[in-house]
Known about the structure:
Helix content: 40-55%
Number of strands: 2
Radius of gyration: 14 Å
Number of domains: 1
Oligomer: single chain
Strand order of the largest sheet: 1-2
Largest sheet: 2 strands, antiparallel
Order of helices and strands: HHEEH
Shape: globular
Mean pLDDT: 87
Low-confidence stretches: none
Amino acid sequence: MEKAQQDFLQAVRDNAEYWAKQSGTKEHVCNGLAFSIMVLLDGYSNHNLRGYSLFENSMIGKPIGENLTGSLHDDYRKTTKAQSGDKQEM
């Protein structure tokens, strides 16, 4: 496993541990963890990670379309609040 993979997985574990200790509904905690993982992918975390490229893969495993990262966390936050009317911050 490459160092970048190890660093990413550790950051996910750190976020899972953090969100497991938070109060609120299960939905709020799960949304918080999902949001935090998207922050990691987008490259806006305090884990010193640069961000990642995420593409849809074709049936033969080749990337197709455009990079999905960059604003995933912000788009997720906006659409999640709009769908649920949730006023709690993630």
